[in-house]
Design a protein that fits this description.
With 198 residues, the protein is mainly α. 34% of the residues lie in helices and 8% in strands. It has two domains: 50 residues, no CATH class; 125 residues, FAD/NAD(P)-binding domain, CATH 3.50.50.
Length: 198
């Protein structure tokens, strides 16, 4: 648990990250079980945090433009990504796409095998393989290995035998990471001269 001072006097603290569906009385009961909070007065209790986001696979194209009005681009959390790094990354892409378009260039979309490309595919529907994963079930996401396309070859151990369990998972993540780094380097190389340094 993390406490953050919320006023200059030091009489009000915020318990960071306490989003909950618990009723207020139950929150008080549970929080008072924590040593040092037995007699605490709670100025405000937690509630469930909800983000507003677009149904981006339906509304946005592959470069984050609004399909109905392509002069508008969306970026950050409202597109359906979760997390500070993810939101900033999508903002960076939206800016790069807008700059390329303004300069009369075709925006160069990052490969789906990279973290930023996989997240973009999730947001814009570029990853959709089946109707079950379609726009009706779209939910915001942090970047994760589940968004990456599968590997072309199965991962095997050094002895050439099939891996199982945690060994297989670790080897698969390592192979996906190595592929992502190769593909990201190639994408950066293909950017217009002067763009890669930006």
């Amino acid at each position: 648990m993390q406490l953050r001072q919320d006023n200059a006097l030091g009489t009000l603290y915020n318990m960071v990250g306490f989003q909950t569906k618990l009723r207020h009385a139950e929150q008080v009961r549970i929080l008072r079980m924590i040593p040092g909070l037995e007699n605490a007065e709670f100025a405000r209790l937690g509630g469930l945090h909800r983000n507003t986001y677009l149904n981006s696979p339906v509304l946005l194209d592959g470069t984050l433009r609004l399909k109905a009005m392509p002069r508008l681009r969306f970026a950050g959390q409202i597109t359906g990504c979760e997390g500070y790094v993810e939101s900033a990354s999508i903002g960076l892409l939206a800016g790069r796409f807008a700059a390329a378009e303004r300069l009369g260039r075709s925006p160069l979309v990052p490969p789906g095998s990279t973290a930023i490309g996989a997240l973009l595919n999730h947001i814009t529907g570029g990853h959709l393989i089946s109707e079950e994963a379609g726009p009706r079930s779209f939910q915001p996401m942090n970047v994760n290995f589940g968004l990456f396309p599968p590997l072309a070859d199965s991962v095997k151990g050094e002895d050439g035998k099939r891996l199982r369990g945690t060994d297989k998972t670790a080897a698969k993540k390592k192979a996906m990471s190595e592929r992502a780094l190769r593909d990201l380097s190639e994408w950066k190389r293909r950017l217009e001269p002067g763009e890669a340094a930006a």
